[in-house]
Design goal:
Number of helices: 16
CATH architecture of the largest domain: 2-Layer Sandwich
CATH topology of the largest domain: Heat Shock Protein 90
Number of strands: 7
Structural class: alpha+beta
CATH superfamily of the largest domain: Histidine kinase-like ATPase, C-terminal domain
Largest sheet: 5 strands, mixed
Oligomer: single chain
Distance between the termini: 5 Å
Radius of gyration: 45 Å
CATH class of the largest domain: Alpha Beta
Strand order of the largest sheet: 2-4-5-7-6
Shape: rod-shaped
Order of helices and strands: HHHHHHHHHHEHEEHEEHHHEEH
Helix content: 55-70%
Length: 514
C-alpha cells in the first residue's frame, strides 16, 4: 500500500529553514575549512613544539628510576669483572648528570613555556643529552689491565653502550635529534680510541655504536613524526568538534526561536479568531434577517441584494476564521478529540448529501462505491466529518461543469478503513503538491479559479488524521484529476473482519488502492 507522497511542512517553516541556512553560512564555511585542513597532508610542526617538549619532560620524569638502576647494575658488573676499575667515580658523575636532566625536565613541566621560550628550553634539554653522552664517553675509556683477555671486557662495554643508547633513545623520542646530540661525544671518543689503538675490536665497537646511534635516531624520528601527525589530527578534530558544537548550538537556538514564534502566532490567531467570531455572528444574524425580510418587506430591492452580499461575505469570513482557529489549535497542541463509536459509511453519506445541492448546480455526478458492511470505528465524529466534507468540497469546487466525483469507502490492506474522493478536474502539477499541502498554500489552478479558498483545508485534514494516527494521500495528474485518500489505521476499527469462506468476497474486500 502506497503511503503519502506529500510533505507536511508549512510555508512558514520553509521560510525559517531558509533564513537559518543563511544565518549559519559563516559557521558552515568555517566547518568546511576545518574539514579541509583535517584532510590535508601538510603539517606545521612548530605549532606543537611546546606540546612536544612537555611530552619529553614527562617521559624523562616517568623513567627517572631507570637510569640509576642501570648505572648501578653496570657498576656492579664492572667491579666484579675488574675490581681495579675506577667505576665508582664514573657512576657518581653519571648520577649527577642524570639528576641535572631530571631537574631540567621537572622545571619544564611545571612552568608554562611560551612561544618565544621554546627554542631556549629545547637547547637546555639537548644540552642535558650531551652531558649524558659525555658520561658514557668516559665509560668507554675504561680498560681492564688485570683481565686475561680484552675481548670479554670489550664485549661487556659494547653491550652496556648499546643498551645505554637504546634507553636514551626511548627517553628522548619527543626530543628531535636528542640521540644524535647525546651520543656524538661517545662516537667521537670511540673513533679517537680506535684510530690511536688500531685494534680491529675497537674499530668494530666504534662501527657498531655509530650504527646503533643512526638506527635508533631513525626509529625515534619516525616515532616523533607519527606523534606529531596524531597530535595534528587530534587538534584539528577537537577544532572541528568545537565548530560543529557552535553550529549545532546556533541551529538549536534558531529552531527554538522558530518554535516560539510559531506558537505565539498560533496563540494570537486563536485569540483573535475567537474575538472576531462574536461580532461576525451579529453581522450574519442581522444580514440574514434583512435578506429574508423577517420584519417586513424592504422598499428597495438593491438593499436586499446588499444584505445578501453582506451575509455571504460574512459567512465566508466566518468559515475562514473557523479554519484558522482549528489549525491554530492543532499547532498549539490544544486540539482535543471527542472519540466515540461511529460509522464511516454514514458520515460519507451525510457529507455527500450536504454537497449534493452544490454539485447539482454544476451538473456534477457523485458516484458512490461503498463496502456493503463496515464495522464502526473509534474516532471524533466532528473531526472525521470535517475531513470528508473538506475533501468533498474541494472535489466539487474544482470539478468542471458536467464532471464526475467518485467517493469510495472500504478496507485498507492492513485492516484499516479509508475514504477516497476522486474527481476529473484539472488536476495539480506534481511540483505544486507540497505547496497545496502547506498552510495557506494554493496551486496555480486554484489561484486562477473563480472559487478561491483559504488554503487551510488540506493542512487541517492532515492534522486531524495525524491526531487519529492516520495518513493522508494526495495523488494528482495534470488534466486527469485528483484523488484524495484519508486513511484510518486498523487500531481504530472496533471489530475485525469476519471469516469468509468464499475467496471471491475476500478478494473484493481486500481490493484497495495500490
Amino acid at each position: 500500500m502506497v503511503m503519502s507522497n506529500g510533505v507536511s511542512t508549512s510555508t512558514d517553516k520553509n521560510i525559517v529553514d531558509l533564513s537559518r541556512n543563511n544565518r549559519n553560512r559563516a559557521v558552515s564555511k568555517t566547518v568546511r575549512a576545518t574539514r579541509e585542513r583535517l584532510q590535508s597532508t601538510g603539517r606545521n610542526t612548530k605549532v606543537f613544539e611546546r606540546d612536544v617538549l612537555a611530552l619529553h619532560a614527562n617521559a624523562v620524569l616517568q623513567s627517572a628510576l631507570v637510569t640509576p638502576l642501570f648505572v648501578a647494575t653496570v657498576t656492579a658488573v664492572g667491579l666484579y669483572l675488574n675490581p681495579a676499575a675506577n667505576l665508582l667515580g664514573w657512576a657518581l658523575l653519571a648520577l649527577i648528570i642524570h639528576a641535572v636532566n631530571v631537574l631540567i625536565a621537572r622545571r619544564a613541566s611545571r612552568i608554562e613555556i611560551g612561544a618565544l621560550e621554546t627554542v631556549r628550553w629545547r637547547r637546555r634539554l639537548l644540552a642535558g643529552q650531551v652531558l649524558v653522552g659525555i658520561g658514557w664517553a668516559l665509560f668507554s675509556l675504561q680498560h681492564c689491565a688485570t683481565c686475561s683477555g680484552d675481548s670479554f671486557y670489550l664485549f661487556y662495554k659494547t653491550a652496556v653502550i648499546l643498551v645505554a643508547i637504546s634507553i636514551s633513545a626511548m627517553n628522548s623520542v619527543m626530543l628531535r635529534q636528542g640521540v644524535l646530540f647525546g651520543f656524538l661525544p661517545l662516537i667521537l671518543t670511540l673513533l679517537v680510541s680506535a684510530v690511536m689503538s688500531g685494534q680491529m675490536m675497537d674499530i668494530g665497537l666504534t662501527a657498531m655504536s655509530a650504527f646503533a646511534v643512526v638506527f635508533f635516531h631513525y626509529i625515534a624520528d619516525r616515532q616523533y613524526r607519527s606523534t606529531l601527525t596524531l597530535m595534528s589530527y587530534q587538534s584539528e578534530k577537537d577544532e572541528l568538534i568545537a565548530e560543529l558544537e557552535v553550529a549545532k548550538s546556533m541551529s538549536d537556538e534558531a529552531r527554538r526561536r522558530a518554535e516560539e514564534a510559531n506558537l505565539a502566532k498560533s496563540r494570537f490567531l486563536a485569540s483573535m479568531s475567537h474575538e472576531l467570531r462574536t461580532p461576525l455572528n451579529a453581522i450574519l444574524g442581522f444580514s440574514e434577517v434583512m435578506n429574508s425580510e423577517v420584519l417586513g418587506p424592504m422598499a428597495n430591492a438593491t438593499y436586499q441584494e446588499y444584505a445578501g452580499d453582506i451575509h455571504r461575505s460574512g459567512q465566508h469570513l466566518l468559515d475562514l476564521i473557523n479554519e484558522i482557529l482549528d489549525l491554530s489549535r492543532i499547532e498549539a497542541g490544544r486540539y482535543e478529540l471527542n472519540e466515540d463509536a461511529l460509522s464511516l459509511l454514514e458520515i460519507a453519506e451525510d457529507c455527500i448529501g450536504m454537497v449534493q445541492l452544490r454539485a447539482s448546480g454544476k451538473s456534477i455526478t457523485i458516484h458512490q462505491q461503498f463496502e456493503p458492511t463496515l464495522p464502526q470505528i473509534w474516532a471524533d465524529e466532528k473531526a472525521i466529518r470535517q475531513v470528508v466534507l473538506n475533501l468533498l468540497s474541494n472535489a466539487v469546487k474544482f470539478t468542471p461543469q458536467g464532471g464526475e466525483v467518485t467517493v469510495k469507502v472500504g478496507w485498507t490492506a492492513s485492516g484499516g478503513q479509508y475514504v477516497a474522493i476522486k474527481d476529473n478536474g484539472p488536476g495539480i502539477p506534481e511540483e505544486e503538491i507540497p505547496i497545496v499541502l502547506s498552510a495557506f498554500g494554493q496551486g496555480s489552478i486554484a489561484i486562477k479559479s473563480a472559487e478561491q479558498g483559504t488554503g487551510l483545508g488540506l493542512p487541517i485534514v492532515q492534522a486531524i488524521l495525524a491526531k487519529h494516527d492516520g495518513q493522508f494521500v494526495l495523488r494528482s495528474k495534470l488534466r486527469e484529476g485528483t484523488e484524495a485518500i484519508a486513511i484510518l489505521p486498523a487500531t481504530r476499527v472496533l471489530q475485525s473482519l469476519p471469516a469468509v469462506e468464499d475467496a471471491a468476497p475476500v478478494e473484493r474486500r481486500r481490493r484497495t488502492f495500490a
